[in-house]
Specification:
Layout: H1 2-37, E1 50-52, H2 65-75, E2 78-82, H3 96-100, E3 103-107, E4 113-116, H4 118-121, E5 127-131, E6 137-146, E7 151-155, E8 165-166, E9 177-182, E10 192-209, E11 212-222, E12 234-236, E13 241-250, E14 257-261, H5 266-275, E15 281-282, E16 285-288, H6 293-296, E17 306-311, H7 316-319, E18 327-331, E19 334-335, H8 339-347, E20 354-361, E21 364-371, E22 373-374
Parallel strand pairs: 8-13
Antiparallel strand pairs: 1-13, 2-3, 2-5, 3-4, 4-7, 5-6, 6-7, 9-10, 9-12, 10-11, 11-14, 12-13, 13-14, 15-22, 16-17, 17-18, 18-19, 18-20, 20-21
């Protein structure tokens, strides 16, 4: 009888000790979760370090047959891009991404037009090499590029290519499921598919590259695990539509990647597809929206529209008396709140077309009719 009581007492002490450990562990986990949930990106004077690359993220539900079909279809349009013709049998060498210029692109037209990042392909009129899904490689010419957007369009002399479906990036929502496809590390892992969500919309990122200040606006933020070589790859929604081109990551934090919205380049793709050329129309200004202004001048505050920061000499804007400090609220009947929205609308026009700008100057609204110039 006494032996049974001693055993029972020991078991009671052990159970109390185990319960204590569980309670302490639970408290620690809850505290860590609460601490992590408070972490956020905020404006600070600390320099943000970024890496030009695309996005990848969490595991995909392998039982979702519709997603499998969508990914398989999109994969036909994903290509590898290199600045040299022969990348060899392996890219697992020091600085391979930088040496070979490895990256990703997406076919956007059956006529051989491909979208990627400018930092992958190089500037307009430069050459690079494209590897298709079937393994065949072709020399490509850069027919358009914009360093402020980090986007470019390549052309290869192949007809009848299977192109990706382009979505509407203006409709993206925070929390929306997205998938990234690209060539992380190199061709050994080509067309790696990963999933995540839209973490935020219309992000502005200021960083330094090659001792030059870079400011990119209106970016799509994703909670991605970032890998070198994914630059220029597509970010797609659950319908298989391309909503962004993967471009950047913050290398000082995990799960913070960025894609350039696809809408900005859609009018350019359409013109190349229809006419084989793109004559870039321009108003002749550079400007900033309300999200960018705090990075540049804390004394300026706007609630909507685009703040005109600079006028190109001899441009249509100068000829029509547009001044620095004017705020563009509309172009024709379209409300404008970002520079990308303004560019997207102007790109849909042609040099010589007339547009009507609704502007505000010193609190007074006025309309200005402008014939677009050619950049």
């Amino acid at each position: 009888m006494h032996r049974y009581q001693r055993v029972k007492k020991k078991k009671t002490k052990r159970n109390i000790f185990i319960a204590f450990i569980i309670i302490v562990t639970t408290i620690l986990i809850v505290s860590l979760v609460r601490l992590y949930s408070r972490i956020d990106i905020s404006k600070s004077n600390e320099e943000i370090k970024v890496e030009r690359t695309g996005t990848s993220s969490t595991n995909i539900n392998e039982n979702d047959e519709s997603i499998e079909n969508i990914i398989a279809e999109t994969n036909y349009s994903v290509v590898g891009i290199s600045k040299i013709e022969d990348v060899g049998d392996s890219v697992f060498s020091e600085n391979a991404i930088e040496k070979l210029g490895l990256g990703t692109g997406i076919i956007v037209s059956s006529k051989g037009y491909i979208v990627t990042n400018m930092h992958v392909s190089g500037d307009k009129y430069s050459n690079c090499y494209v590897t298709l899904e079937n393994g065949n490689s072709y020399k490509a010419n850069v027919v358009w590029a914009d360093s402020t957007l980090d986007l470019s369009i390549l052309k290869i002399n192949i007809e009848g290519m299977r192109s990706a479906k382009l979505g509407d990036s203006s409709k993206v929502k925070t929390g929306q499921t997205v998938y990234a496809i690209g060539n992380p590390i190199g061709y050994e892992f080509q067309r790696t598919v990963t999933s995540g969500i839209i973490s935020a919309e219309s992000r502005t990122l200021k960083f330094k590259e090659n001792n030059t200040d870079i400011l990119m606006t209106d970016l799509i933020q994703t909670d991605a695990d970032i890998n070198p070589g994914n630059s220029g790859g597509p970010l797609i929604n659950t319908k298989g539509e391309v909503i962004g081109i993967n471009s950047l990551k913050i290398d000082s934090a995990e799960g913070i990647g960025f894609a350039v919205p696809i809408n900005i380049i859609k009018p350019i793709i359409e013109k190349f597809d229809k006419t084989g050329k793109f004559e870039e129309p321009t108003i002749g200004i550079s400007g900033y929206d309300k999200n960018v202004i705090p990075y540049l001048d804390k004394d300026i505050s706007i609630t909507s529209g685009v703040y005109v920061e600079n006028i190109v000499k001899g441009s249509p804007a100068e000829q029509k008396g547009i001044l620095k400090g004017d705020i563009i609220l509309k172009i024709d009947d379209k409300e404008i709140n970002t520079m990308n929205e303004l560019k997207e609308y102007v790109y849909s026009k042609y040099p010589g077309d007339e547009v009507n700008l609704s502007i505000k100057r010193n609190g007074i609204s006025k309309n200005v009719k402008i014939n677009l110039g050619k950049k």
